[in-house]
Fold these 4 entries.
Entry 1:
Amino acid sequence: MRAGWLAVGLCAALVPLAVHGEDGVEFKLGTRLDTQTDNRDSPLAASDGFAGTQTLEARWRFDALAGNRLRGVMTARRERDGVLRMRSSELVLERTLGPGHLSVGKTAGDWGVGYGFHPLAAARPEDVRALYPVAPEGTPTLAWEVFDAQRALTVMLVNPGRGRAAQPADDGALALRLYRRAGARDEYALLRGSARNGVEAGIGAAQVLGEALELHGALLAQQRHATWLGAAATEAPAARDPGRWRRFGGGGKALFGMSWSSAAHWSLLAEAWLERGAYDAGQWSAWRARNAALLAPGAAPPALVAANLGWNAASLRAPELRQKNVLLRLAHEQGELDASAEALWMPQDDGLIATLGLTWKAGPWRLSLRWRRFGGASGSVARALPARGAGVVAIERAF
Amino acid sequence: MFKKIGNMTRQCALAGALALCCAHAVADEVAAMLRRADAFRLPDASAQVDTLVQSYQDGRLDKERRYQVLIRPGGRALVLFRSPGEAGQKVLMVGDDFWMLLPGSARPIRITPLQKLLGEAATGDIATMTWSGDYSGVIAGEAMLDGVPCLELELSALRPSLSYQRIVLRVARRDGRPLQADLYAASQRKLKQARFVLELRDGRQVVTRMTLVDAIGHGRETVVSTVSTRPRQLGDELFNPMFLGRADLAP
């Protein structure tokens, strides 16, 4: 309750800033209803149900003292349990420093090319493939950037003071990013060092051809990579999470994509990518074998089996389920309506994740409907996900 | 005989040179007229323009949106969306190259010329406030518009990425202020007709309102109003797509 009043008070304090020219605050008040249908074929079946969430998001920016500029994003969410949770997903101080610009704080978003996959992300990438994307969680960053008309150079320290963390997004890293505009082509280069992946080097480009076509691609080479692996099938059910990050040799990521748009407001996006850090066929076989061993009659008390199945399910929460992926997205804009259809195909096991979306935008109002279906071939990883389908209905009003 | 041929050749060369000079002179004259017309739309070459775009359907206000546009010579414009629900969205234009930044994202996306359209008011209507440098043309004739003697300029786009590939622009004969423009696509299909309203601001006549009537029909009209214009020194970094995610666009 106290947190709720604090959230309201902080947001109200920001309102007067909106009257200043460059300064401002925008609010978004929203309600969303999430639903999912259970996958009865999965050993990790979730329950069918609905969950409602109310959110208040405030994005603000204003001039602070001595040439500093502050911006941030604050979110207050009330979920099904009725508890109000506040989160500052972004809080950044920006100012000029010498010939460049300094940014200090919790920064959201990444960099480079790609829609469904971001090989050149130096920090936590934006999750554009989420069923209903929300304000992304920022990453503590210290960055200094230099810009001219054609180029940009960024030196950034991600998660300063941290080495190898529990999750890759929380790892400390030092990155150097280069950008150059060459006419209709954007060129990117990345050099990144971290305890987890060693030295990573990548290049990327986006090129516009004619009026309607854009091509993009990126490559990243990694000195090493780490993959989360659970326990083997032969191991007994554990009393605590047996999963560990295991280090492997050189890794890499590759992306190639295109987008096409028409004067009639149709657009098509196609991307194919490779993520060598995702599970290969052998690792998925070992994962299935572990589940089968846990579900064998008399393996262990039910509560212990459930706990171990839950820990093993962490593999299903990886950003990429398979190493090879193909994404197709068709969208059409007609006045205030945006419609989209998307299919993510994993050719290694014929897994398929299909999404339909419809958004109605009228001034400050936005109504969104999304439905996602997890399917494909019967042995595919997509068919092993706990949910068979998931949907969102969300309405937002901006101020 | 050879002397006659020599004379003829000299005369032809002289005539050709004269025609070329005339063509250049006309082109220079039209370019000067476009610069005069531009001065009524954008008094300062480098400026911040606050714009209100109102869309009408059959005379009823349908939509209203606010934009802030930072303009620099050389075809550079940064459009900042200011309306609730769109705040944070940015479109950057540098000549024939375009990028978009969506609200809540820090990644600028390279977009095609077709993707840069912003609903009913094309990006060019908001961000391109000058014709000189983008169009060349000839004086097609004279006309009378609401009792004002005008010159009619037939303009052709110098770049394929421009929203309108052909414009018939009518400017007042007396002072060169723009009064009306017929806007055409590359297919020669007439897309819109623009009418300009001028008012006295800061001691000078400037275009404060441009009404775009949809030539394809359906009773749609868009009014682009210049709420305020102020000169502003704009650094190179503001027109670098990697700078779009930053908040320090302060004056």
Note: The longest strand of chain A covers residues 24-38.
Entry 2:
Amino acid sequence: MINSIISKKAKIGENVSIGNYCKIYDDVIIEDGCVIGDYVILGHPSNSKNKELYIGKNSTIRSHSILYSGSYFEERLETGHHVLIRENTKAGKNLRVGSYTDIEGDVTIGDYVRFHSYVHIGKGSKIGDFVWIYSLCTLTNDPLPPSHIERPVIVEDGVVICVNSTILPGTHLRFGSFVASGSIVEGEIKPGVVVEGKNLIRGHVSKLINIETGIRHPWMNHFFDKYPEEEHRRIKELGLKIKESYSKNMG
Amino acid sequence: MKEILLDIINKIRKSKKLEPLTELNDDMSLRNDLGFDSLDLAELTVRVENEFGIDIFEDSIVNSVGEIFQKLSK
């Protein structure tokens, strides 16, 4: 812990490892079992009325990441390197944020969400549970930039957004919808619907199949085992709900 | 049935800016000859199901046009 500056007002739990050249501000709470990498800043001052930064137990914050004050993360947050998370972000358990991803604040995030690297989550976004957002995706919020207008994106449970996609302001991705790589999406995308390119409907996620292996979406069918056993039932129920949305939305 | 399936396949090919086919052969591979990826197969499945009421991938993998005809003929 060379040259790290830790405020005496910060609350550090048991078995917490803090790297070198870190700065931990007042009103930071780090629960038991966390690992903080080198050059990490926790509790960076912000305009948030809530000055507290809470990091749940067994979290890992990797080097050069900055987490602003006013945010709350349940257990097992894990970041890559050079992650920026602005104020008033509230996340459920087991959030994973890839390297160089930034979350612009006033964002709510559910449980077991995965952001890969170089993802931009626009201010005010609402993300559900079990969402996957792959590299180089952007969730925007200003319909006529630059302006004071904010139309954040809503991403419901189980949504997958593939690489290099742009989700335009005000878009609402309903549960289980699937955005193909390189897409530009706006408006409401119904549950389980697959969209490609500029809002082109390609079918339903329950019909997405890899012909070489035979595996078939929704991904809950075959990927549930990547999650803790206590979550399997919840994931499978979500998968069933998505599958059942086919007849309503595509039939 | 053949004409309807050809029409469906050509709609998908058109969206991919591929030339329309004039006929279908049983041994045409969905991937290699029609150039279909997972998204195309998803759209094909939905369109065929809407038309014929059959999910061509429900019980097993379908690799060729001929295998689609077999499923639709049952």
Note: The CA atoms of residues 192 and 205 of chain A lie 5 Å apart.
Entry 3:
Amino acid sequence: MASRANPISKTNFPVRFKTLALKFIFPELNRIYLLRVLVVGLTTLFLFRYILIPFWISGHSMVPTYRDGGFNFCFTLRYVFDAPRPSDVVLIRMAGDRVMLLKRVVATEGQTVSFVDGQLHVDGEPVEEPYARNGGFKWNLPPRRVKEGHVYVVGDNRSVPMEYHCFGQTPIERVAGVPLW
Amino acid sequence: MVKKRYLLLAGLIALCGLLAFHLFPTGEQSRIREQVENLRGVILKDGHETEFAAGIKAKKIRRMFAGPCRIEAGVYGISRSYESGEIGPSIIAARQPYNRIGIDLHDLQIADMDQDRAVVRFTVSLGLAPYAGLPMNDTHEIVCRMEKDPDGWRFSEIRTVEVLEK
């Protein structure tokens, strides 16, 4: 038989659920609650400002891998204990991290990069690039060595003349992170 | 218990002060930012610009630059010094082929600053719609040197930074 002394009973469950729901939606503004809000707020701010930076993709240089208008997060801790490797997609910082370049690493320091009739060559050997989109433009670039502390990056969309595509070597310090997916 | 409250209050006030210092720039910094924003404003073009308006912009540009001023934009094949009298007409002439020019500034930082010199770094996104040809977008990192004179902060050098070296 239900009684006030025993609120946990089948007949009181809807009332208890309603009380809990109201408490959740309209919490009591006490110190614990305010502290909780502060901690969650600061953690979220830190996480999405420094660790998982949200970004929108603007442009076609990484088509078909990443399309214009797409959304993603830049994971900045990827290279804390490691260095960028060929075929990694990376975000490259400019003056800050509000606008970054999204490119793919094709060569690392000490390697030689060239393009011959649209085909990427690293250290004189042709490189298989299943991710690249070619469109009939024959890119030709004489060999050049990647400097120490640099990586060579190119976009996946090669269906434009080489002069219109922004690519080249950049210091590793400019690599902000990698897309989360 | 009372002392703890005062300490907490003092800590909060100090934190607010630090945040305000970081978020709201000092007088000279805000003047520098305003001058960079003014430069953006004179380079913008909305497609309805008359010759008279362009002439006024040329005068404004002249007042924003110290003479001589160096412009280094290797990607556009520009690398020379301009006297104060020629910088305005040169920039207006460079805008001529374009019906519309959109320009957005990001990540503006004052990298180095003393009483009468400053180095400013930012990213600029350009949207160019020429009269003939397809529209194009471009993004560059820019470094500017600025000098202060009695009339305010003026640009003495503007150069693009080669982020990706082919």
Note: The two ends of chain B are 65 Å apart (CA to CA).
Entry 4:
Amino acid sequence: MRALLCIGCDSYDYVNPVAGAELDARRMYDVLLQPDRGGYDTIRSRLVLSPTLEQVRRAIQEVLFVDGQKVDTFTFFFAGHGAVHGSSFYMALRETRLDALSMTAFSLAELLRILNDASPAQTNIVIDACESGGVIKDLGTLLKAEGLGNADSSGLSLVATSAMDQESVGTVNGGFGTNAILDCIEGRTFVNDRSPFLDLVEIGRRVSEIHEWPDQDPVVHGINLIDTPRFCRNPKFNADPSTPFRDVIRDWPAPSGEISKDLYEALWRSYSSLNRSFRSDRFVEEMSVSFAKLADEPENLARVAARLVEPMSQRARESRDVFQPARTCAGLAVALLPFSNEEPIQEVAIDLSRLLIQELIAAGKQLVADLKADKYALLGGSGGPADLFFLPIRISSVLGWMGAVRLAVNPSDEICAEVDLIIDELLEAIEGTYANSILAICDSQAASWCCLFGALLLMERQETAERLAGRVFHSIVQYGGKLARFDISSEKVLTFLLAREQKSYEKIVDLIERPIETLTVLLLLADRLNLKDVWDPSLWRLDGLALSAFLPKSYKEYSQSRIDDGRNLVWTVGFDVFTAQDFLKAWPNDSPVPENEITKLLSVFAALLFSDRVPWFTISAK
Amino acid sequence: MTSEQSGATRRHYFVDEDADRAFSKSLNEFLDALNKRQRRQFLSPENVQRFRHGGTWLHPGKPEIDPGEMQQHSTVAETRFDDVVNHDLKVLPRLIEQISRALNEQFFRMFYQTVSSACDKSGNTVSNKAAGGLEQALLEMLGKIEFSATPDGKVNLPQIHAGPEVAEQLKALEEHGSPEFKAKFAELKERKIADALAKEEQRKAKFVRYGEEL
């Protein structure tokens, strides 16, 4: 129960009136009662304006002493005349006489005695009055109170808007001190953005820092602050969307207690790229390097990786790319692959994989919906000639990622049927509008084709797989096997397309991938797709074309930007391959397989993220 | 570094590091293009392959071919601070020539070593002395070589790479060789051409079909 008592005294019988005190009390009361500001109880709280002493005592009784309803946070606000007399500070009320303060004014000492009796867990006192710094005279007594420091003892925060020997200034629009405090409560003045609640002491310090009032200095006291202070809600909490990410970096375990500058910048770079200019390969590389700093501390690494997921996913959601959250999740998981021997890392990787599957399902559903609403939804920004190159790659990417989900889910899992439906709907939509863009144009598509066809075979969509594979094979034959190199720069795409249109490649030899892996994927599937006899008659058109497959020593290496351990297998049509069967006979029997399920899952997504490696094990089972 | 500051902590004065990197990149591209042009004399760019990972390759379809392995070619080139400070533009052609020459030398050495090793392994070597003279050696060499033909019937004649002295001798032979030598050479060449065409037909026959259906 949070309760509030606001007192504003403009009118006095025996003292000069004050301008703006009632306004201050009313404003403070109104703001702190708002659920998203103070959240104080609207029934229990009280606002008294220019009251008598009796009215104040009655209001306090109504706020603090109601049977069965203990107040745990109590805030007391006073604006009006104040004075120090003897060993106490007095708040002047309507009938106060300056020559009889102890009998006619409300002393802080009395308030403290009452609070000692009511013992709310936290008390916040704000006094906007002259000489209010004189509260120290009463606080000294409080410091000697018995029980102070015990776990169940009360805490007190107090802000006095002027020093003991100063006046508290204001206008008809309110006191300077109250206005400054209200600015913090309502977010016009920044205090912090890290905590959901603001502490009165912190507000007081902030006001002290920034105020420019001549001859008036706020005084701030905090006594016995045991529990988390909750004066009011923090309007700036999480206002900076990067706050959660900054928190993770701030808490990054470092031997020196502080993260190194290089690591800090690397992490920020990775984070910043998530909603724009995202390069998945670079993201994995940078996160791998960052994670490697904690390679010897798997528990810490697991904790940090787990904490990064939410802020990074949040940032990724700011991207217009629907698949961005999934790619981010995949990137984080793949970056953990080198460390996945450790149990804490395996647990995080499994959690990430589950999240990744959910993200991909959501992305797939969204794409299906978008295609139903707009059949051209897969076209890029301007939908112009650039998509002659990028659209086929985009199509293979969405199909490849959805294929990867299907490869990742357990067939007995109930979401399997959901994934199958999404893939079926997606294929129907894509084949309906984009059939002629289902083609091979760049060797970076090899991994996507591998995942798609592997999934279709798993789903027993033989006919669909045959049809699509046929389209891709035909496109390779049509253009003589001349696919763009996987890392072709965007500036060279036009040159490539012009040469492709002319089927004249002499001047762009360096833009052509040699050998290619896309044909290897297709030939590896030729038997299972019953397409050997269909394709063999066309192979002469690819005479001289080199095809390859890089087989790593271990698929655990698939998260590295460059994999050193492994062998490149090379074939050449017209030299050692004349039929699909020639190729299949020569595929090695000792082709490696992933060591465990986690490696299997993550290496598939690594292949999609890097686009320069293929998860052969998904299709190469003989 | 001869300046007082070490590289990592050198202070900068209007230095644009991105521009510096862009210049290095363009220089590398220039050198790369230059080297490729020079290599084209010996190696068609269609026969140049690129691997993204690993350092070895093998041919499962032709296991008798030895696995290949990457070799690193490198060179160091220096540019003196004083030359830059004195705006000596000749720094550029000197640098380019130095790097290009060094890398080309390494490439050609590797190229000839590879060809030579293959010849040694297959026994495709001829000794001038053992053959009894240049005419006989040349005929013996021609006898050991296989010509290749393209699918459209064009036969690729072999190239002869020789040092200056031998090249002169070969030129002289071409002009002043004995009629018997010239006749034998011509006959051998025709036979090799026919063999090449026949071999190419055999190769094409390994496909299910070759050429458009009539």
Note: Residues 343-373 of chain A form the longest helix (31 residues).
